[in-house]
Amino acid sequence: QVPLVESGGGPVQAGGSLRLSCAAPGRTLSNYIMGWFRQAPGKEREFVASIRTGGVTYYADSVKGRFTISRDNAKVTVYLQMNNLKPEDTAVYSCAAATGLLTIQGMRRSENYHDWGQGTQVTVSS
After folding, report:
1. Which of 114, 115, 93, 100 is nearest to 10 (CA)?
2. Residue 26 Rama label (left phi>0; alpha psi -120 to 50; beta)
3. Which DSSP state fits 21?
4. Pairing between strand 120-125 and 10-13?
5. What is the pLDDT of residues 54-86, one digit of tens each?
6. How would you class 95 by CB atoms within 10 Å of its CB: exposed for 0-12, middle for 13-18, buried for 19 or more?
7. Dihedral (C-alpha) 73, 66, 88, 80: value to the nearest 10 degrees?
8. Would you give the end-to-end CA distance of the chain in angstroms?
9. Residues 85, 38: contact at Cβ < 8 Å?
10. Count of CB atoms within 10 A of residue 40's CB?
11. What pLDDT was estimated at residue 76?
12. SS in 3 state form for 50-111?
């Protein structure tokens, strides 16, 4: 198991930016596929972005061009830079870890991720 901890959420006005962080204290994330998912009240969890161990990234159409997923050089932290935030981005954002070989479609499916953080709330006001 990988104990994941997210940080960086909070309130922000529409058009603003936030950077979310995801780390596993005392461990490196270099061997894991990492993903960010979000869940808004009354809605199902949805894919936001993911990154392979080699750095290839994937995004939901709704965030493409506004959000960027990345790893730090030491590969102990995964980030989600969120720019030009919109009220519809309001949700609890969770990071997750996966192992193995995933297809492009598999990178977007929450059931392929085996460890999850508790989530961090992002609230975008208009």
Report:
1. 93
2. left
3. E
4. parallel
5. 999 999 999 999 999 999 878 789 999 999 999
6. buried
7. 0
8. 39
9. no
10. 14
11. 87
12. EECCCCCEEECCCCCCCEEEEECCCCCEEEEEECCCCHHHCEEEEEEEECCCCCCCHHHCHH
